[in-house]
Amino acid sequence: xxxxxxxxxxxxxxxxxxxxxxxxxxxxxxALAGAVRGLLSxxxxxxxxxxxxxxxxxxxxxxxxTTVSAAYRNLRETGHLTSRRGAGSWTTLPHGHRVAxxxxxxxxxDLDMIDLGVAASAAPVELVPAARAxxxxxxRYLGSAGYHPAGLPELRAAVADGYTSRGVPTSTxxxxxxxxxxxxxxxxxxxxxxxxxxxxxETPTYPNALAALAARRARISTHGIDIEAGWDGDMLLGAxxxxxxxxxxxxxxxxxxxGHLMPAELRERLVATAHSTGTELIVDESFVDxxxxxxxxxxxxxxxxRHSRVTSIGGMSKAYWxxxxxxxxxxxxxVVQRLAAIRVGVDMASPVLEQLVAVHLLRLSSEIVAAxxxxxxxxxxxxxxxxxxxxxxxxxxxxxxxxxxxxxxxGPFSSALSRAAEDVGVRLAPGPRFGLxxxxxxxxxxxxxxxxxxxxxxxxxxxxxRHDLDHAxxxxxxAPAVIA
Length: 484
Prior knowledge:
39% of the residues lie in helices and 13% in strands. It has 15 helices and 16 strands. A seven-stranded mixed β-sheet has the order 6-12-11-10-9-7-8, sandwiched between helices. Helix 2 packs across helix 4 (65-77), helix 7 packs across helix 11 and helix 9 (233-243) runs parallel beside helix 10. The longest helix has 26 residues, at 365-390.
C-alpha cells in the first residue's frame, strides 16, 4: 500500500535545500535531488512514498518545473526514485536494497566490553529485600497449580491503580500481566494483526517491535520522526488516513530511540483519527515513569479513547530492572479476556514469585523511581558533556526523559563506526537497526544507563576511531549483538 506526500509537506521537510552560493555552486536541481536523498537516508522520508507531481512540487518550492523534472531524473538515475507513466513516482533505494529486521541475537558476555546496545539499567538496591518479602508471601499460593494467565489479582490491582492515578480510570479486569513488555506486544499483535495486515510505525522505532511485526508478516508503512521536531502531526495523521492500517504502533513517552515526548494535542488528534480510519492503536509506555526535566507530562493517550481503540502496554524493565520479566497490557475487559486465552497457548502464565516481587517493588515505586530519575539525569548530563567535548560536530537534542540519546553523525557511517568501535571495546546500536530499509546511517542511539565513567570512556573510545573511518579496511564478520 503506497502513501503519498503533498508538495507543501515535502517542501516543509526539505527546509533550506537550495545550493550554497560560491564559485563551485551546484545546480538547483542537483541540490534538490541531494536534499531528497538526505531525507531518505535519515529516515524522515519513508521508502515507497509517492512524491508529488512535478508541477505541484515546483509551486510549493517556488522554482521552475524544469528544476523539479531534472531533480526527479537525477533521483531515478541514482536509484532513489522509480516512476511509471500514469502511476507517478515513488521513493526507493538503489538496487532495491533493504535491511532485514528479524535478527536480534545474544552474544557471549564480554566483561571488557562497554555495551551501549542495551538501553536498560542495573537492578535497584530494593530488589533483594523485595525478593525476600515475596518469598515469605509465596506459601499463600503453593496450594494451587500456580497458573494465573491474566496475572495475580494483587499485581493487576497495583498496575490498575497506577493508571487510575495518571487520570485513566482502570479496573483490575482491564489489566493482563505478561512476561515483559515484548510479550505484551506479541500477544496484542497475535490478537489484532492478521498475517499480511497493513500496519503503521514510526521511523526510527524500537527494533524488537519491528521484529515482532516481521514475524506476523505485516505490511509495514512508516512515519518519519525528525531529530529536532519529533512527530509531524500533519504527516502522521495523513499517513493514517491514506493507508488506513489495521494497527498503528507508537511510543509517545520519551520515544525510543529519539527521546521525544508527544504533545497532548497530537495525542488527542491521533486517537480521533484512528477511530475514523478503523485503526487500533498500540501505545508503548515503557518509559512513562522516567521524565528527567522539562514540562509536565501530558495525559496518557488512553485518556482520549472513547471507543476502545487504544491498547496500552508497559512494564518494569526501564524504571526497575530488565531481569524482572514483568510487563502488562491495559485494554477493555473483553480484550483482556481474549488476550489471556491466547496467552495460555504461549507460556500459560508469568512466574508467581516474580509477580510477587513486582508487587513489593510497586509499593516502593515513589522512592525507586525518584532515585532512578536522579541517576539517569546525572548520567545523561555526563554523556552530553563528553559528546560536546570530543565530538562537537555531532548533532542531537537533549532528551527530557527516557534513557536514550539519538545522535546525528557528521556522515552516513553509523554501521561502519559500530564495527570500528567493537575493536576498541564498545558495542553500539547503529541507526539502521531502528528502521526498515537500510536508512538512518547518519544516526546512532546512545543510551545513558551505564555508569557515568563508563559513558565518558565509551565516548573517548568512539572518538578515537571516528577519525580513522575514512581510511579503514573492509569490515570483517562479527557475532551479532542484542539491541534492546
